[in-house]
Amino acid sequence: MSSTEPSTEPEAPPGRPPAPASGTSTPAPAAAPLLPGSPAARAAGCACSVLANAAYRCGASTSPLIEPTCVVHLEPT
Asked: Are 53 and 65 in contact (CB under 8 A)?
């Protein structure tokens, strides 16, 4: 007879993939776009308004406010 022992690894919550086995690496996520006025964008030189883009960053607005002087978000002409 074989005994069954409970697994020592925690189960993943429903809808979430299981965690990788220890000692394995996971691929890095793709770089997310820099949202206008976000801290990461500001660190990269974004000149877009933080306050004017707050609603866009949280999903309450569908269009961002891009400053014409922003070197990060201004479309090249």
From this structure: yes
**In sequence order, what are the residues at sequence separation of 6 or more whose Cβ sits closer than 8 angstroms to the Cβ of residue 26?**
20
Q: Which pLDDT score, from 0 to 100, does residue 8 have?
A: 60
Tens of pLDDT, residue by residue over 1-13, are 555 665 565 565 5
Q: For residue 53, what are the contacts with CB-CB under 8 A and spacing of at least 6? A: 35, 36, 37, 38, 64, 65
Q: What is the DSSP string of the chain?
A: ----PPPSSPPPPTTSPPPPPTT---PPPPPPP--TT-HHHHHTT--S-TTTTHHHHTTS-SS----TT-TTTSPP-
pLDDT value for 36 = 93
